[in-house]
Amino acid sequence: xxxxxxxxxxxxxxxxxxxxxxxxxxxxxxxxxxxxxxxxxxxxxxxxxxxxxxxxxxxxxxxxxxxxxxxxxxxxxxxxxxxxxxxxxxxxxxxxxxxxxxxxxxxxxxxxxxxxxxxxxxxxxxxxxxxxxxxxxxxxxxxxxxxxxxxxxxxxxxxxxxxxxxx
Length: 167
Ligand code: ZN
Prior knowledge:
167 residues, alpha+beta
């Protein structure tokens, strides 16, 4: 396993659409392992393949309940609404307010290409939506209502007691 370089806002690759994974190869398995390692090292709650420069439909998420790996994920159900601060490892030090569904169901495949179904509420729902957006080349900054804030000063001003996390 190895750490990969996280691409930063302004890098073209972050606005490109990702290709489907047709089969899991040793190279892509290594990518998944590296993405997990890179996410944990950066203390993020999610990471999508384009954030490490690979245009494949793979995301990893851990909101504190253990790692989730999703290959070719698709949102099959969504409902409710939540409004909260959101951040992104590709936009370091910034957060902005984004409205997301409060509950989503995502179907896809795990790292062994076995079908998986993940149901998420609140932060997990937010992380799933945020990471799946990355696969379409959509940055959360295009969905922010109002302005981007510095994440440090935001914590001082409005400590909601909940860590919205960087994805
Ligand atoms: Zn992100």
